[in-house]
Fold:
Amino acid sequence: MKRTIVSEKIREYRREHRLTQEELGRILGVSAQAISKWEREECYPDITFLPELAALLLCRVDDFFV
Structure:
């Protein structure tokens, strides 16, 4: 079974688009600490953020799960 790592995808796409955690957080209306926690797997973004996050990072919601 393939392991799904949302945190790695968020970090990968954020870096690909040359955004800091602070910049991404400001755009989404969350703190840089929240982005950091998502990327360290301390917690996951609320499911309601995924469509906006995908649009911002130019990917599909599905891409976070493969």
User: Anything to note?
Assistant: The CA atoms of residues 49 and 56 lie 11 Å apart.
